[in-house]
Structures are given as structure tokens and as C-alpha cells.
Amino acid sequence: MLTAQVKEFGGPQVLVPVEVPDPVPGPGEVLIEVDHADTIFLETQLRAGWGGEWFRMVPPYVPGGGVAGTVREPGPGVGPEWRGRRVAAFVDGSYAERALAPADALTAVPDSLALPTAAALVHDGVTAIGLLERTALTAGDRVLILGASGGMGTLLVQLARARGARVVAAARGAEKLALVRRLGAHEAVDVTAADWPERARAALGGGADVVLDGVGGSLGAAALPLTAPGGRFSAHGAPSGDFADVDPAEAARLGITLYGIADAQYPVEEVRRLRSLAFAEAAAGRLTPVIGEVVPLAEAARAHALIEDRSVVGKVLLRAGS
After folding, report:
1. Helical H runs in 262-309?
2. What is the DSSP-derived secondary structure letter of residue 322?
3. Whole-number Å distance between alpha carbons of 69 and 172
4. Lowest mean per-residue pLDDT among 78-87, 110-119, 253-262, 276-285
5. Cα 80 from Cα 151, distance rounded (Å)
6. Which of 81, 90, 180, 193 has the most crowded CB, counting CB atoms within 10 A?
7. Residue 188 three-state SS
8. CA torsion angle for 137, 261, 271, 131 (degrees, to 10)?
9. pTM summary value
10. What one-character DSSP code corresponds to residue 128?
11. 3-state SS assignment for residue 67
12. Element (H, E) at 202
């Protein structure tokens, strides 16, 4: 089968197509015929060698963690009824035509939901709904979303608006600002403007009850003072190169509750619940992932280049199926 492997740490060019034998499902596992694989910015950072203190990646390896496809072969101890089922799951190494997953980690894909849509939600749908639950976003809250035009950011805009929050979306450039407005943002702020924090504060009416920082770095740090006293700040993103450097003492002084990347990690049963919620919302037409580009698996290096130069609005998916 075809995979895309990181041969060494470096630029997108180190991600190359490699043929390997099909994996064989062990007890409690299934073999998934991958239709589409999810991609996230973190995978480009790991490929470049970032994050070694948190992620133990040793080349050569197959990147990726989320797929949507069809069960090709149930392993020992897995009921035959799974064969042929449309499923989504987290897997180890999703940049592949076939992948193994524990049967208890599978989420059934509704018949009315296309597999590319399921792939776009397999990771971001879980995290987006989980973040809104963790920060207890509710009707009337003012929410600032950094990285609002990305794969997860676009979901957060829609979900926050559906909950009745006042949504201020931060993104880069006219095209991305127009997108987040179409998705339901009440106001959109261009973070390339030097005075974007002041503009965001004005749009929020003085401050945010919830800040969802999917960017990190200096932008995330600049958003902490925009959080209203008693508010919640989630520093879960690092596509800028690092998580936001926020001062816990300053946050405590302001009565702000801080959340980090560890608060966006969930046990298997919680992942299934959150993913099922995302799939149900999408199947009902209430949640639409923005898929900006679909790239063949053999061109995974191009997919990483697109993600890194931020030229694509929304998600980049890998197409493994025909």
C-alpha cells in the first residue's frame, strides 16, 4: 500500500511516498480502507523537528492521526458486523491507504455524511466542541476566536454563534475575514493591523468572556489583556511556533481561568461522544467544515507546503481512495 513518510526532519520535501506491506489487524483492531485523511498544522511542525519535548517522533515515520473510510477487515475478537462500515477514527499514521484502529475507538459515520466531511471533523470537530464545553460558553457570552479561518476556527465560529454568543473572529486578510463573517461572526478583526487588539476590544464591547486562542505566540499573548475579569482563556494552539506565553499570576490577579493544550485531550469514550455530536450537527446541516483543498496522498508534501504558507482557507485533506 502507499504511505507518505517523513524520512528526516526538515521542509515539506522530506515527506515522500513509500510503498509498504498492508498492516494486519490484531485482537480488538480493524483495518480501515482510508478514504480521506485529516491534516493539522501540528503535523507540519513535527515534521520540521519542533515539539520534541512533547512528542517523541523518530524518522522515518508516517504522520497523521485521523481518518475516515471503510472497515476492510475486522481483527480477532471484533464482530463481523463492522466489515464494510463507514467509520472515522484516530489512528497512528493516517497518511496511508490503509490504517489500523482499535474497534472501541471507531465512530460510525452517518449515511447522509460524506466521508471527506467526516475526515474534516474527525479531529477538529472533537476539539472544537470540547473547547466550548470546557470553557462553558453560553448565550450572551462575548467570545474572541484567534485563527478563526482555519479548520477548527471555522467550526468554532459556527458553534459559538449557534450557542448564542457574540462572536468576534480574528483572521488575516480580506478573504479570510469575509469567510468568518459568512460563517456567523458578528465582527471580524484583521490581525495584520498593528492596532488589532484595540479593534477587537471595541468589537467585544470592552472585553471577552471567553478567548479561544488557536494561534499562540505573540498574538495569543496580546489577547490575554482582552479577557474580561472572571473570563476564560484557552491557549490550545501553536501554529505561530509556540503556545501563547501567558502569565498565570497575572491571569489569577484578573480572575481569569486559564486552559491549555492538556485540557483539549480526551479519553477514548469522550472522543467518541464529541465526534458523534460533531457528525450529528454536520448531518443535520448545522455545521459545515470548510475544506479548502484536497490533495492526493502521493502529493502529501504539497499538502504540507499549502498548510505552512497559509494560502488555503479552511482544511487541507489528503485523498487516499480512488
Report:
1. 268-283, 300-308
2. -
3. 33
4. 253-262
5. 34
6. 180
7. strand
8. 10
9. 0.93
10. H
11. strand
12. helix 196-204
Residues 6+ apart with CB under 8 A from 253: none
Burial 241-262 (b: 16+ CB within 10 A, else e): eebbebeeeebeebebbbbebe
Which residue, 258, 319, 312, 304, is CA-closest to 41?
Answer: 304
From the CB of residue 17, how many other CB atoms can be counted at a distance below 10 Å?
15
Cell of 81: 458486523
User: Pairing mode, if any, of strands 2-6 and 15-19?
Assistant: antiparallel
Amino acid in position 271 = V
Q: Residue 181 — very low, low, confident or very high, per pLDDT cuts 50/70/90?
A: very high
CA distance 14 to 304: 10
Rg (CA), the chain: 20
The grid coordinates of residue 244 equal 501563547
Placement of cell 490484531 in the chain = 26
Adjacent-strand bridge partners of 74: 30
What pLDDT does 241 receive? Answer: 65
Whether omega for the bond prior to residue 197 falls within 30 degrees of 0, making it cis, is no
The secondary element (H helix, E strand) that includes residue 117 is helix 115-121
Q: What is the mean pLDDT of the chain?
A: 94
